[in-house]
Amino acid sequence: MAGGTTACIFCQIARSSTSTPLLHSDNRVVAFEDINPSALRHYLVIPVEHISTVKDLKRRAEDYTLVSHMLDVGRMLLQRDVPQSKHYRFGFHQPPFNSVNHLHLHCLALPFIPRWKHMKYLSLGPLGGFIEAEKLLDKLKSE
Fold first, then answer.
1. Which residues form the HIT domain (predicted)?
2. Which among 18, 23, 41, 118 counts the fewest CB atoms within 10 Å?
């Protein structure tokens, strides 16, 4: 995995080097609100360790465990903060559609606001786009 850089904004957030309020922090991940929310609630969960994109994850236990933990944290936060929401969405943008080169899980309590923002969270099949967290976990499961 590539080492983080001082230029990576998410590495700065993970090290608490910014004023970004953290919703969750442990030794593996931190969570915070997306600065440009696309839904009723929109949180990001990132690993403390710099991992550029989903393309850097391998089919191995440690990557599966990390993504699973990221998903658990995202679910816990949304269920805590918007328990009345009936629809949640969890996933990752894949290159070249990711906006920041630091792995980040989008945790969305729907509806999308405004409605057209759902376009950013569509799978584009072999072209990439958005991959649901559960589908990524299936890909990372070791045999």
1. 9-121
2. 18
